[in-house]
């Protein structure tokens, strides 16, 4: 209202009504809205101003399309209009700038809302390794470009060994959001890890980055080998076996193991371990054999694994001892002392302890008289070679020969066997009184002179210094005289006593004396003098041993008056009647002795000297034994090993003299002969220290006092083992792009240790430009076995020829291979990466292939037999189809008519068809003519003679498309010929063309048999059909026809079959 007044009068006033029109506007021009992905977002704009107001929403300049998730709700308020835009299950693409436009009639305005959808951050990128060790790796990355509209709070670094899956729990390291690298500790060496980095904000962790594979460096193994066991294989070998450390402690690629050994005992602290390298064969268990060790010695053994960075800890020491062996030295300081005439004392010291090689179980003494006396069967235990065992260092030998020189040898033995014998020691038993002289004879040389002869003692027990001759004279019962006459000659063993009286009796006996004293006497010999001096022999016969080819003199001193006559008998044959060849080496001396020159084994036997005169006769017999060298022993090889041969032999004839020893001769196949002497008491021996897998020639000889005997047959034997085998290429070669590794440790040695290898290869083209083969490239001539050998600097994707020559003690073998290296990217050029050279280029020629030759010979033999069989069949067929001499037509027709009539009669009498006919005892059934007319094994009743009540059963065996074994085989074309029956004619007439071929008749076998003469038991006779054809009227008049219930068959084709009749009794 507006009022105006001037003070005069009533003022003036006017009321003015003002209407203000408010245009639409927003209080806030823009703002941000944060919402999590997946939740609902509500964008609200309130437009102020006069109504009516219209509102609209746009995103990035485009109208917002209403969908299922997006809705708009407008609400009027006093101040204006409120619009709410709701977005359900917000997605990342829903974020952006939303603009709310308002308009009324007075103006328009807009407000912008920046919708920020908060999400987990994107994965970091560009993962890289900054530092890498065996147990620590530093990984860096680039933060993600999209942080999910929320600051990154931290990074999660997750890592797992590559063999593990990411599905299980993984190890994790947390890094602050401001960092972009992390260090991973406590990793396993030589392990590939997969590393992923996850960024995390307030909304949670985002997606993981791409996997980064990190290979930690190798480290020396941290685990010791397990289950180490040691076994003694021999006296110089120990076999060690073990299991590798746990695989998680290998810390790299296991290259092998070191096997260390040291000698225990006095030198234990002086020496360390001696290590041997054993390559790892990837077979789960390690094995190694230590050779060249000391015998029966304790060793401490350890095993440690190694890889490319070094060796790991050693296993616990295992103590083992090599096996016992025989002593290598003989007892020392052997001494022998005579205690008496039959006792010797032997003392010694043990062998050096280092050469015993075991526990001494005792000592064995070998002693025998030297030279060996003649041994009779009852003296063998006392006079032959003897053995005594003892555990002491001294012993006394009892019951020895008196005053005899003995050789004594001594050896120590363990559980394994005897050791080395000591040198021979000789000692003699003491002297003693002698035994009685060996014999005494007293003869009348003349009527008043006595001749006394005797033999020396068989056991002189010392040096005979004199003989004592005792004489006693008796007259009746009175002793007239007694005297003792010393006889100092030890070679002339005779004594003459003259002046004998006939009335007296003379008695004689003799003793021998040594320096010790007088021995026992001989029996008393009596003599009564007489005028008649009978013939007698003063010499002594008995056993006489001589050596082969020695000259022999057999004495025959005769006395008597008159002088006796002598005669020598050789095995009861008088000397003068001997064969001239036998007399050639025999002669009689002037004194009557028999002389034999160059005695042979055939000369041994009885030699008799007979003397006689008119008063009497006497004789002596010599048993001559000719000692020769022993016969050849029988040698056998009872066993063998890689370095030894076990021999056993059997002695035949010893030649009449004890065998003193044996000599074993042996040599390599192309070497020099060697000898080994063996004691005569043994029959087994082991040849040791031989070469493995090598052929030897061995024979044995024996010797006695006469000499060496004949050799045994030479044996060709071989120690165990052989030349190296050829390994498969897959076991030997490992090929990559530029190198080939040879696992020489896997080469089979065939039982003989490998010595060395020679490795050669040829270039990938194999031929030079001139077409000549390139030279082999030698990469090693003395490669030590048991290692992995590499051939380097090869071309990728190329073919090579490889030649490896393996040598061991038995010889060498050459293996040829062909291999193809991988391509530069690791691919293969051909399917056969490695193959044996013999598979392609060294195949044997066909004429040397055993399989091909055998197959060709068998085929040729089969072809010849087939041709012979074919010729034989054709010949038989020609003979069977050869026509017989042609009779006249009239005779043929007459015979045919009679045969047919007779056959029809027999047929109706014995056979009937299978088709069911009216039963009538007086009517016979039809004969089965076709195979369809019978059934397999059908039984027919055959009536017998009227007076007989017995019944015979005849069985037809039906054979479909099969020839009878009693008949000629029938071809298929002839066997199954099909024939249509003619109208009104059910059966073929006899003599038709279809019946002219043997075996093709459509009738049954029994029918043909009847036509052939009626021999029921003869099924093998061929069928000869009649030449002429019988007329139908003849058949019709004989065959009564089918029964009333039989109907003619339809026009069908019936294949011919073959039937055989069997007669059942």
Description:
With 1065 residues, the chain is mostly beta strands. Among the domains are: 25-118, Immunoglobulin-like; 125-215, Sandwich (Immunoglobulin-like), CATH 2.60.40.10; 226-321, Immunoglobulin-like; 335-373 and 383-428, Immunoglobulins (Immunoglobulin-like), CATH 2.60.40; 431-531, Sandwich (Immunoglobulin-like); 533-623, Immunoglobulins (Immunoglobulin-like, Sandwich); 634-718, Immunoglobulin-like; 729-767 and 774-820, Immunoglobulins (Immunoglobulin-like). Helices cover 8% and strands 41% of the residues. The chain contains eight helices and 71 strands. A five-stranded mixed beta sheet has the order 3-10-9-5-6, with no helix packed on it. Strands 13, 14, 16, 17 and 18 form a five-stranded antiparallel beta sheet that branches. A hairpin with a 2-residue loop joins strand 64 and strand 65. The chain is elongated and about 245 Å long. 26% of the residues are buried. Mean pLDDT is 79; it is low at 375-382, 766-773, 838-845, 884-889 and 910-1065. InterPro entries: DSCAM/DSCAML_C, FN3_dom, FN3_sf, Ig-like_dom, Ig-like_dom_sf, Ig-like_fold, Ig_I-set, Ig_sub. Keywords: Cell adhesion, Disulfide bond, Immunoglobulin domain, Membrane, Repeat, Signal, Transmembrane, Transmembrane helix. It is found in: Membrane.
CATH class of one domain: Mainly Beta
The name of the CATH architecture of one domain is Sandwich
- Runs in which pLDDT lies below 50 for 5 or more consecutive residues are 375-382, 766-773, 838-845, 884-889, 910-1065
The CATH homologous superfamily of one domain: Immunoglobulins
Shape: elongated
Organism: Cryptotermes secundus
Protein name: Down syndrome cell adhesion molecule-like protein Dscam2
Subcellular location: Membrane
GO biological process, one term: cell differentiation
């Amino acid at each position: 209202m507006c009022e105006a007044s001037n003070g005069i009068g009533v003022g003036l006033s006017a009321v003015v009504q003002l209407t203000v029109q408010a245009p639409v506007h927003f209080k806030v021009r823009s703002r941000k809205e944060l919402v999590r992905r997946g939740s609902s977002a509500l964008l609200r704009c309130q437009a102020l101003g006069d109504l009516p107001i219209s509102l609209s929403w746009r995103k990035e300049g485009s109208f917002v399309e209403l969908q299922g998730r997006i809705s708009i709700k407008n609400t009027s308020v006093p101040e204006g209009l409120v619009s709410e835009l709701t977005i359900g299950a917000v997605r990342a693409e829903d974020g952006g700038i939303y603009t709310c436009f308002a308009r009324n009639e007075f103006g328009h305005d807009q407000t912008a809302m920046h919708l920020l959808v908060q999400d987990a951050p994107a994965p970091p990128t560009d993962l890289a390794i900054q530092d890498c060790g065996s147990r620590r790796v530093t990984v860096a990355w680039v933060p993600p470009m999209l942080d999910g509209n929320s600051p990154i709070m931290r990074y999660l670094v997750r890592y797992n060994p590559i063999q593990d899956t990411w599905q299980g729990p993984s190890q994790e390291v947390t890094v602050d959001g401001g960092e972009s690298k992390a260090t991973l500790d406590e990793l396993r060496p030589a392990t590939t890890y997969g590393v992923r980095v996850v960024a995390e904000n307030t909304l949670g962790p985002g997606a993981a980055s791409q996997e980064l594979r990190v290979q930690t460096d190798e480290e020396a193994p941290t685990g010791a080998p397990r289950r180490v066991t040691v076994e003694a294989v021999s006296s110089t070998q120990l076999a060690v076996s073990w299991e590798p450390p746990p695989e998680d402690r290998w810390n790299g690629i296991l290259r092998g193991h070191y096997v260390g050994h040291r000698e225990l005992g006095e030198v234990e602290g002086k020496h360390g371990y001696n290590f041997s390298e054993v390559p790892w064969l990837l077979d789960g268990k390690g094995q190694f054999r230590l050779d060249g060790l000391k015998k029966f010695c304790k060793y401490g053994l350890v095993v440690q694994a190694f890889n490319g960075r070094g060796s790991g800890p050693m296993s616990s020491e295992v103590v083992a001892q090599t096996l016992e062996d025989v002593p290598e030295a003989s007892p020392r300081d052997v001494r022998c002392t005579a205690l008496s005439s039959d006792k010797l004392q032997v003392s010694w010291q043990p062998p050096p302890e280092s050469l015993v090689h075991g526990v001494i179980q005792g000592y064995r003494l070998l002693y025998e008289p030297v030279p060996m006396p003649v041994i009779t069967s009852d003296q063998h235990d006392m006079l032959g070679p003897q053995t005594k065992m003892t555990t002491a260092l001294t012993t006394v030998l009892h019951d020895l020969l008196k005053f005899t020189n003995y050789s004594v040898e001594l050896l120590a033995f363990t559980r394994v066997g005897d050791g080395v014998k000591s040198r021979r020691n000789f000692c003699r038993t003491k002297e003693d009184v002698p035994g009685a002289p060996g014999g005494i004879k007293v003869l009348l040389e003349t009527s008043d002179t006595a001749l006394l002869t005797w033999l020396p003692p068989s056991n002189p027990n010392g040096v005979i210094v004199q003989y004592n001759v005792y004489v006693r004279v008796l007259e009746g019962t009175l002793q007239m005289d007694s005297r003792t006459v010393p006889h100092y000659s030890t070679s002339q063993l005779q004594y003459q006593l003259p002046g004998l009286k006939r009335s007296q009796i003379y008695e004689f006996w003799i003793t021998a004396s040594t320096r010790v004293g007088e021995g026992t006497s001989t029996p008393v010999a009596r003599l009564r003098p007489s005028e008649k001096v009978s013939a007698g022999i003063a010499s002594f016969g008995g056993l006489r041993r001589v050596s082969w080819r020695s000259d022999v003199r057999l004495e025959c001193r005769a006395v008597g008056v008159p002088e006796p006559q002598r005669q020598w008998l050789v095995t009861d044959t008088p000397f003068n009647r001997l064969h001239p060849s036998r007399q050639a080496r025999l002669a009689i001396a002037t004194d009557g002795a028999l002389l034999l020159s160059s005695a042979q084994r055939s000369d041994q036997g009885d030699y008799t000297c007979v003397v006689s005169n008119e008063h009497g006769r006497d004789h002596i017999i010599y048993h001559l034994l000719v000692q020769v060298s022993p016969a050849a022993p029988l040698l056998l090889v009872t066993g063998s090993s890689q370095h030894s041969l076990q021999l056993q032999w059997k002695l035949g004839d010893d030649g009449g003299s004890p065998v003193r020893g044996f000599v074993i001769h042996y040599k390599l196949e192309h070497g020099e002969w060697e000898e080994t002497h063996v004691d005569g008491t043994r029959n087994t021996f082991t040849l040791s220290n031989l070469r493995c897998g090598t052929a030897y020639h061995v024979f044995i000889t024996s010797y006695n006092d006469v000499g060496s005997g004949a050799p045994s047959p030479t044996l060709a034997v071989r120690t165990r083992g052989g030349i190296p085998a050829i390994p498969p290429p897959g076991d030997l070669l490992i090929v990559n792009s530029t190198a080939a590794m040879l696992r020489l440790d896997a080469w089979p040695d065939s039982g003989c240790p490998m010595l060395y290898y020679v490795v050669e290869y040829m270039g990938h083209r194999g031929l030079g430009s001139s077409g000549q083969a390139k030279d082999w490239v030698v990469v090693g001539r003395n490669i030590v076995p048991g290692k992995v050998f590499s051939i380097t600097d090869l071309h990728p994707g190329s073919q090579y020829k490889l030649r490896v020559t393996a040598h061991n003690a038995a010889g060498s073998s050459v293996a040829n291979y062909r291999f193809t290296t991988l391509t530069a990217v690791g691919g293969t050029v051909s399917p056969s990466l490695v193959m044996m050279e013999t598979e392609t280029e060294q195949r044997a020629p066909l004429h040397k292939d055993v399989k091909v030759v055998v197959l060709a010979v068998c085929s040729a033999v089969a072809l010849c037999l087939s041709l012979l069989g074919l010729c034989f069949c054709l010949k038989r067929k020609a003979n069977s189809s050869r026509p017989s001499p042609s009779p006249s037509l009239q005779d043929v027709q007459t015979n045919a008519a009679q045969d047919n009539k007779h056959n029809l009669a027999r047929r109706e009498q014995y056979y009937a068809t299978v088709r069911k006919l009216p039963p009538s005892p007086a009517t016979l059934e039809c004969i089965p003519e076709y195979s369809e007319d019978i059934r397999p094994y059908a039984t027919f009743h055959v009536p017998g003679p009227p007076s007989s009540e017995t019944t015979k059963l005849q069985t037809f065996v039906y054979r479909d498309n099969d020839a009878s074994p009693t008949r000629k085989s029938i071809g298929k074309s002839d066997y199954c010929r099909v024939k249509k029956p003619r109208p009104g004619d059910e059966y073929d007439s006899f003599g038709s063309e279809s019946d002219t071929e043997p075996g093709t008749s459509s009738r049954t076998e029994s029918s043909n048999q009847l036509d052939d003469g009626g021999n029921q038991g003869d099924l093998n006779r061929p069928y000869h059909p009649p030449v002429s054809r019988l007329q139908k009227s003849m058949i019709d008049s004989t065959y009564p026809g089918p029964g009333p219930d039989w109907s003619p068959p339809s026009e069908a084709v019936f294949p011919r079959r073959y039937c055989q009749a069997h007669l059942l009794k």
